[in-house]
Design a protein that fits this description.
Chain lengths: 528, 370
């Protein structure tokens, strides 16, 4: 213990020495834009040395009778837009602009720039210039003007909007988020086209600024939640945030927990439905999944398909998921406990037939289960990495061939194969990937304690799990809500999915300002 | 996880349901397993009538507790006593309550371990079993009353199936066993009352829980519901035992509830009693876990050194050490629980009545009328 602490301390000290504090990461301010073009170009070259993808196109700008230069990054800016909307206009169609020859071009004359783009900003310092050009804008410098102009010509490579792979749905929308935050915001706006949908933009990261946008409904979301989320995001001090998972890990309440405390989703419809319930949605630029907070345990059992299928079917699915979750965490443990500890629970005939299978197996039940479970986890992981056709082969080879051969070779018993494969199937039922992986992991300690203490061990594991669940929080809100504390009014959408016209209120667990979601759309006798 | 045991009331409020369930769950635990037999021992098949008398007694005491707590709604009983009787009486009562709840927690935990030891795991050492249960207990108590309330709620949901499982036993019921009612007059019933009164112990938690209740107007209603729930469960199990077993047979078994569950058998599960007991451990666990919390509260009031979590840790280690060294068996446990019952009678019945009388008299004087 002492040694461990020392090692940690040592590494902490080392990392302190090697990494400079955050303020050192960003280069110092480089001053203002000069009025001479030459000085400006020199400054730009000084900032971006060894950047062959930077384009500097110089030309003669007629209205002011001076030289000008347009700077942009080749891959980040949209070439069509630059050619048609910027360069062409500036070079050829600027004669009838009413700027006096040699006159000063300043803030007031900004609208008069002959550029057919909507979004133009003025830039006065090289820091702003750096940020703008790195975000794909093109920047215009004109000789004799102590300002530069940035045009929104972003056009970096981005993928087309496609179905989300990880959260496939049968009846939901087939649009998934992509890696551009503006596009993701637009996708959500398509669902919630209301002026109450507010977007708060923050920039986090000291080396590379990552744009984070918090989306919420102003008249629904509890302001305390928003303030808490903002506080957590602004207090971050990191180099760069690459994706949503990183962000979640940095701001979650209990970083040592196995369970995810935020929902991450790639589906705009899921995100929109959560925002409508009063939750916050954080979009991280460059990441194709968004983060939703606060999350309650119930949200991990809800799939978007539940709301587009008939409600009895959806209710059945819900119950199935809870049952599957229990199986995935506890079934191998229960099997081990029954086989190695509590034989008396199993009827005589059954235990004789189990004994027959087990007689050939040289391993104790725990080892036998571990062999199968680990094989299965390896197959699963291998299946992800391989392209789809090969992945299927792995599945067949692993599932059928290895399983069957292992039984015949007497390494594992028949019943163990049944148990492990049904556990595996159960663990894939949960719609949320993070939760499913957490539960897959929980079953290993359960197996271990079951092999040591039998069913008493399993009950202890269950108690520990409950104790952990009730102490977890998500954005300072209880995680186990609405199961504990019990909020019966929220149970309309937890274990069962009541008909939509019965769910007239937003969940109380989110503490939304506006409780009512819809009127009673189906009063008695209306639809006869 | 940041919650410390001694958070101010505002931040660790419980809902009415949680308040009901915490009190109910402290009452309902080990008692159910042996109660029907204890009732049958002295009261014969009329023993169940005594439950109503015990219920009435505990109801009066619990309502008195709520009345007492109303005089100082923002604090626990300790604050109330320090306010009315001075600091030193406050310290004294803290110590008494601390000892009371630590005994409560230890004896019930130990009884639970003995049950596991004799029914499920004969080979294991008792302190090892205790070590297992100490871990979740530590995690829960650390969260304060809120965590205790949530725990009670989840366990309630997880144990709802049990009474329905027992329903199948009504096939084998012989209702004639209950007739004639009061076949030997009232005397056997009255002699059974002490056994029933003690099985309602646990409502004295209201002394400490009351300030944490959000809606204090419903405190009396809540404690009434809690006691009634307990009565219903006791009645259900007792009557079930009485009609399934014959009046003589019932006195042969020690843990009558488990013997009852043993009758249930399926083609795929034998020894259903073991499955039942294993799940029932969850229910038992919520009797002593709140008691641990109150012990730590008292000890931290008395010795405000270190964090409350440290006190809890020391307490749990102490319990383990006692079990390791002393290792009480069934007889010792019985003897101690009998002793503890007298203590319980004093703390939960006599103390509130006396305190209430005293406070009523005191409130005649202008000094205490605020």
């Amino acid at each position: 213990m002492e040694l461990l602490l020392r090692i940690i301390k040592y590494f902490n000290r080392r990392s302190l020495q090697t990494s400079s504090p955050s303020s050192g990461n960003r280069a110092p301010a480089r001053g203002h834009v000069h009025s001479q073009l030459k000085a400006n170009i020199e400054a730009i070259r000084a900032i971006f040395s060894k950047a062959p993808d930077m384009v500097m196109r110089s030309f003669f700008y007629r209205p002011t009778e001076s030289h000008a230069v347009l700077v942009y990054f080749d891959g980040l800016a949209d070439k069509n837009s630059i050619n048609n909307n910027v360069l062409y206009q500036l070079m050829f169609e600027s004669e009838d602009i009413g700027v006096a020859k040699g006159g000063r071009l300043g803030k007031r004359t900004l609208p008069l720039l002959p550029v057919t783009l909507g979004h133009i900003t003025t830039i006065s310092s090289f820091d702003q210039f750096e940020l703008a050009i790195l975000h794909g804008k093109s920047v215009l410098f004109i000789d004799g003007v102590e300002q530069a102009y940035a045009f929104n010509t972003q056009g970096w490579p981005q993928r087309a909007i496609s179905d989300s792979q990880i959260e496939a749905s049968l009846k939901g929308a087939h649009q998934g988020f992509i890696e551009t935050s503006e596009m993701n915001v637009a996708l959500i706006r398509r669902y919630i086209s209301s002026r109450e949908l507010k977007i708060k933009e923050l920039s986090v990261g000291s080396r590379v600024a990552s744009k984070l946008s918090i989306l919420y409904l102003e008249d629904v979301t509890e302001p305390e939640l928003l303030a808490e989320m903002e506080r957590r995001l602004t207090s971050l001090n990191v180099d760069c945030i690459l994706n949503t998972g990183e962000l979640a890990e940095l701001i979650e309440d209990n970083p040592f927990s196995l369970l995810p405390q935020f929902i991450t989703t790639e589906r705009p419809d899921t995100a929109a439905s959560q925002i409508l319930q009063g939750r916050l949605c954080v979009i991280v630029d460059r990441s194709s999944s968004v983060l939703i907070a606060p999350a309650g345990i119930a949200a991990f059992f809800q799939g978007i398909d539940d709301y587009s299928t008939r409600w009895p079917v959806a209710t059945f699915m819900r119950l199935l998921r809870f049952f599957a979750c229990f199986l995935a965490a506890f079934l191998p443990g229960i099997y081990i406990a029954c086989i190695s500890f509590n034989h008396e629970v199993i009827p005589l005939d059954l235990i004789l037939s189990i004994g027959q299978f087990r007689a050939a197996v040289p391993f104790p039940p725990l080892i036998e289960a571990l062999i199968m479970e680990i094989t299965l986890e390896m197959l699963r992981e291998a299946g992800i990495r391989l392209p789809a056709p090969v992945g299927q082969t792995v599945g067949i080879v692993g599932g059928i061939v290895i399983g069957q051969a292992a039984v015949q070779a007497g390494i594992v018993s028949n019943l163990m194969v049944v148990v492990v494969s049904s556990t595996a199937v159960a663990s894939f039922i949960l719609p949320n990937y993070d939760m499913a992986s957490a539960i897959r992991l929980i079953r290993f300690p359960v197996m271990l304690i079951a092999s040591m203490f039998g069913i008493v061990g399993i009950i202890v594991a269950f108690m520990v799990l409950i104790a952990h669940l009730i102490s977890l929080t998500s954005l300072s809100e209880p995680f186990s809500v609405p199961i504990a504390p019990i909020r019966i009014s929220d149970w309309k959408d937890v274990f069962v999915r009541l008909p939509l016209w019965k769910m007239t209120t937003r969940p109380r667990s989110v503490r939304s300002l506006q409780k009512k979601r819809m009127g009673s759309n189906r009063s008695d006798g209306e639809n006869k | 996880m940041t919650g410390s045991v001694l958070k101010p009331a505002k931040e660790n409020q419980v809902t009415l349901l949680q308040y009901i369930l915490i009190i109910h769950s402290m009452q309902l635990g080990i008692g159910v397993i042996s109660l029907p037999r204890d009732l049958a021992d002295t009261g014969g098949t009329d023993g169940w009538i005594a439950l109503f008398i015990g219920y009435a007694g505990s109801l009066v005491a619990s309502l008195l507790i709520v009345q007492i707590m109303k005089k100082h709604p923002e604090g626990t009983i300790i604050d109330l006593i320090s306010r009315f009787f001075g600091r030193w009486s406050g310290y004294l009562m803290t110590a008494v309550f601390g000892v009371y709840f630590s005994l409560y927690a230890y004896l019930l935990l130990d009884r639970m371990i003995l049950l596991i030891h004799s029914w499920i795991m004969q080979q294991s050492r008792p302190f090892v079993l205790m070590l297992l249960f100490v871990i979740p207990a530590y995690m829960i108590v650390k969260g304060g009353w809120r965590a205790l309330g949530r725990y009670a709620e989840i366990i309630l949901l997880c144990s709802l199936w049990m009474p329905f499982m027992l329903l199948t036993l009504f096939d084998q019921a012989h209702w004639l066993h209950l007739l004639p009612v009061l076949k030997e007059g009232w005397m056997p019933v009255f002699s059974t009352v002490p056994a029933t009164v003690l099985s309602f112990l646990g409502f004295e938690a209201a002394f400490f829980l009351y300030p944490h209740l959000g809606n204090k107007k419903k405190a009396s209603l809540g404690i009434f519901v809690a006691n009634t729930l307990t009565l219903i469960v006791y009645l259900y199990v007792t009557i079930l035992c009485f009609v399934v077993f014959s009046p003589d047979e019932i006195t042969y078994y020690n843990d009558i509830m488990l013997t009852l569950a043993k009758i249930i058998e399926y083609r795929f599960v034998e020894r259903f009693d073991i499955v039942m007991l294993t799940f029932y451990l969850l229910v038992i666990s919520k009797t002593w876990i709140p008691a641990l919390h109150m012990t730590v509260y008292c000890s931290h009031r008395l010795v405000p050194i270190g964090k409350a979590a440290t006190h809890l840790l020391l307490l749990l280690i102490g319990m383990l050490a006692v079990t390791y060294i002393w290792n009480p068996g069934w007889l010792t446990s019985d003897k101690w629980i009998a002793l503890f019952s007298k203590f319980g009678l004093l703390m939960a019945f006599i103390f509130p009545v006396a305190l209430w009388c005293l406070l009523s008299v005191m409130s005649w004087f202008p000094r205490w009328q605020k």
